[in-house]
Write a structure and sequence with these properties.
- The chain is of the alpha/beta class.
- The chain is built from 29 helices and 31 strands.
- The N and C termini lie far apart (about 55 Å).
Length: about 800
């Protein structure tokens, strides 16, 4: 059939029809690399299929040729249009000749199960009927716009999977994304790569640069890594010598294998079988010995041939002679200037990919690396601040904010920034938390950022990978106005914050959610986040951060000014208004307000205090001990809570931070009672379980009146391990999944249940280590509270973990 292209026969002139992913794999296969075989359902077939759809809505009648301009800032309208298009596509039958040809080709792959994956190309000029000029897709998110499709060898299974994948181009997230970056739909060419789904011994990824490459490996198929259900084994390899510089055994409890019959996975019917790994398998390397050496040699050869950094995906499977062999399933050259060096290949078009990497132009130069603390990508002019104490009013909105660190009082500035780069900071610092919540790409821990970047420099910030690039003049000229999506003004040439894409729109494309027994909550701080969480499957707000909430209305004035008698009433009024917004929006679901925890090194600019030189701010004047010395501010917070309660919002509760001793809690409880909050029998006082002493004192806290605990894994981890979580140098040693931390969390959950109170967790651990969720549920956690952008993935992790627990329980029955 003319519209089907086998990987071993694809030619350069076919690139626009087969897409970049398939084209790259085809060239590798044809040059002797071990690539999983397959064929491509061409992009031309997709557009011909759209011509056959019986559109009930006139708006879609010319869909293959229209730009379909939508109001992407109207989520309800966008979801409704997306739903209509997808339903029409999924209900339209394929021509019988197509079905027969696709099944015949799939059968030749010799596997009972195949995978369908998107392979895109983007036309440079949107001229109708012109398919001659194509370029790689400019995209750092589009791999997340499509779900994996697995199909059996029946005509119904193959056509259903194909239509579903085609329909996902018109999902709400996809429509939002392509319009936001200025790419008309008629410029996209969506081909479908069909490959056998082999039973894998192991699978994983490789990220390679000029000096080192990082190998990740897990038993079974790679979905366990993609879906964040396992921490894979990790190896750092020296490119030139192939020497293994470091090895880290992951935490692997499950593996996926092909299944001949579809099984419900994350709300979709997939041909995947989940199996549990026994203890010896968990303690073993997923890939080792000869197979690891084979993979190293393969990557070295690729680096020599392509002469560019790259990412790739691989599987270890049995070959035809039943010997284990490494096969490539995806290769993503990093730079647009990549060419083949092998003399027998000839010229290869510049390589790039629509997958995870930003498109790199010759004028783009790697500048800095750091921690990827907030996802998204942005291109903009830099505004550099070398002294965090200096005035920031003159910083232009829509620029990349570059500074040594990120004081929380810069919240208004952060909200207007295109991206953030700092020399200090970590995944759990307040600056990172703010960036994630407001949807600003951020890279922290980038050494000497204020030295290497000057105000006015044009830079690209990749918050997905923790990289910063400088764009020289020739690279600047190549930026197309059609893909410029400014957050605020023309200073921002390109900005794609991840929250704006996957937050409010995520519900529209989510599969039907099965019920879960574990409560799922959200961590927020800004009223603007209410729109973001409106459609998310949450049971309430598990952590409403007061520090960031209060900062929004302090207008950078020191707190001691607001504590003057003439301004106290205004402070209470403003905080009450904010609390009422949250409690009204979430009612009757609970909202846990955490009172102020002013760490000197972060909030010294507001309190008028500065951390003592050389002192550890983690152990300084903070938490409830501060209340015992300076009770006025805490009493104002209580007055605002009481006013919120009196306004009819009975779902608001109090979470006390960093409680070191039972006496501190009793001090707070007396003032809570004096404020009248406990007159409502529904009102609950919880404490953050983050100071290790709570492990030994929890029964005493419960006797004193604690109604619940929320485990703060961030502070608990740093105090148990003796590591400052904000120290960039120590970031690699800060492990919230450390055996000591896991043991402490399990003990707290057990003690809470013994005391008859609920236990939640609201730190970064469940997000950074998704496999911990299964253990939390096994230990009996009552609720898990995460940032809004992590709600969907955490929901499905809970679904899988609860099902797994049921299966384990069933297996243990006699």
């Amino acid at each position: 059939m003319a519209n089907l292209y086998w990987l071993d026969r694809i030619q350069p002139e076919h690139q626009s029809l087969v897409g970049n992913k398939a084209f790259h794999l085809a060239r590798l296969l044809q040059n002797g690399y071990p690539v999983v075989p397959g064929f491509v359902i061409s992009a031309q077939m997709f557009w011909e299929f759209l011509e056959t759809v019986d559109w009930s809505e006139p708006l879609f009648a010319d869909l293959p040729h229209s730009s379909l301009r939508l109001d992407i800032d109207n989520p309800q309208q966008l979801q409704a249009i997306s739903r209509q298009i997808r339903q029409a596509i999924e209900m339209t039958s394929l021509p019988a000749g197509w079905v027969s040809a696709i099944k015949s080709a799939a059968t030749q792959l010799g596997s009972p199960v195949v995978t369908l994956r998107p392979s895109l190309a983007l036309r440079k000029t949107p001229r109708r009927g012109d398919v001659s000029k194509f370029e790689p897709v400019v995209d750092g998110h589009s791999s997340a716009l499509f779900n994996i499709q697995t199909c059996g060898m029946t005509e119904d299974s193959l056509t259903t999977g194909l239509r579903r994948l085609w329909a996902e181009l018109f999902g709400a997230k996809s429509l939002f994304y392509w319009q936001r970056i200025g790419v008309p739909l008629q410029c996209l060419r969506l081909a479908v790569l069909v490959q056998p789904l082999w039973s894998a011994i192991a699978a994983g990824t490789v990220q390679a640069n000029d000096t080192y490459f990082q190998v990740q490996a897990t038993p079974g198929l790679g979905m366990a890594i993609t879906w964040g259900e396992t921490i894979p084994d990790s190896y750092q390899i020296h490119c030139e010598s192939g020497a293994i510089l470091s090895r880290r055994l992951g935490r692997k409890t499950i593996a996926y294998a092909p299944a001949t019959e579809p099984v419900d996975v994350q709300g979709s019917a997939l041909h995947l079988l989940l199996r549990f790994l026994d203890e010896p398998q968990q303690a073993s390397d997923a890939i080792e010995g000869e197979q690891l050496e084979e993979l190293i040699r393969l990557v070295q050869q690729l680096l020599a041939d392509l002469a560019t950094p790259m990412e790739l995906e691989w599987i270890l499977a049995h070959s035809e002679n039943l010997q284990p062999q490494i096969y490539l399933t995806q290769v993503i050259p990093n730079l647009a200037g990549a060419v083949w060096q092998s003399s027998n290949v000839g010229d290869w078009e510049p390589l790039s990919s629509f997958q995870e990497e930003p498109v790199m132009n010759p004028g783009w130069h790697p500048l800095l690396t750091g921690l990827a603390v907030s996802q998204g990508q942005a291109i903009a002019r830099a505004s550099v601040i070398t002294d965090p104490r200096e005035a920031v009013a003159e910083i232009l909105p829509g620029t990349v904010l570059v500074a040594p660190l990120l004081p929380p009082q810069w919240l208004p500035l952060i909200q207007q920034a295109a991206a953030i780069v700092t020399e200090q900071g970590s995944m759990t610092s307040h600056g990172a938390i703010i960036a994630r919540e407001v949807g600003v790409p951020a890279v922290m821990g980038a050494a000497n950022a204020t030295v290497h970047i000057q105000t006015g420099d044009l830079v690209m910030v990749d918050g997905n990978r923790g990289r910063v690039y400088r764009i020289e003049r020739n690279g600047e000229r190549e930026l197309k106005p059609s893909v410029m999506a400014s957050r605020t003004d023309r200073n921002t040439l390109q900005s794609l914050p991840s929250n704006s894409l996957f937050g409010i729109l995520s519900a529209s494309d989510a599969p039907e959610r099965p019920p879960i027994g574990t409560q799922l909550m959200a961590n927020v701080s800004q009223p603007s986040s209410l729109e973001l969480i409106a459609n998310l499957p949450i049971d309430g707000i598990g952590l409403l951060r007061s520090e960031l909430l209060v900062l929004a209305f302090l207008n950078n004035h020191p707190l001691d000014q607001w504590l003057q008698p003439e301004l106290q009433t205004e402070f209470v009024k403003r905080l009450t208004e904010a609390l009422c917004q949250f409690s009204s929006a979430l009612a009757p679901r609970p909202v846990f307000y955490r009172s102020l925890d002013l760490r000197p090194h972060e909030f010294g600019g507001l309190t008028g205090e500065e951390a003592t030189p050389g002192a550890n701010p983690v152990l300084g004047l903070r938490g409830t001990f501060r209340y015992t010395l300076y009770p006025t501010l805490f009493e104002l917070e209580l007055a605002a809570l009481a006013a919120t309660q009196q306004a009819g919002n009975r779902n608001i509760h109090l979470l006390l931070p960093f409680v070191r001793a039972v006496e501190e809690f009793e001090f707070c409880r007396q003032r809570i009672e004096r404020a009248g909050l406990t007159r409502d029998p529904n009102f609950q006082i919880w404490i953050m379980a983050e100071v290790p002493s709570v492990l030994f004192l929890l029964p005493e806290y419960v006797k004193a009146g604690v109604k619940g605990i929320s485990i703060g894994s961030n502070d608990l981890s740093q105090l148990l391990l003796g590591i400052d979580r904000d120290d960039t140098v120590l970031s690699s040693a800060f492990d919230e999944c450390h055996p000591a931390v896991r043991a402490a969390i399990a003990q707290l959950i057990q003690q809470a249940h013994q005391a008859g109170i609920p236990c939640s967790i609201c730190g970064q651990a469940p997000v950074q280590y998704p496999e911990l969720i299964a253990d939390l549920i096994r230990w009996g956690i009552d609720s898990i509270s995460v940032a809004p952008e992590a709600v969907e993935t955490t929901y499905w992790a809970i679904v899988r973990a609860e099902r797994r627990l049921l299966l384990e329980t069933a297996h243990q029955q006699p």
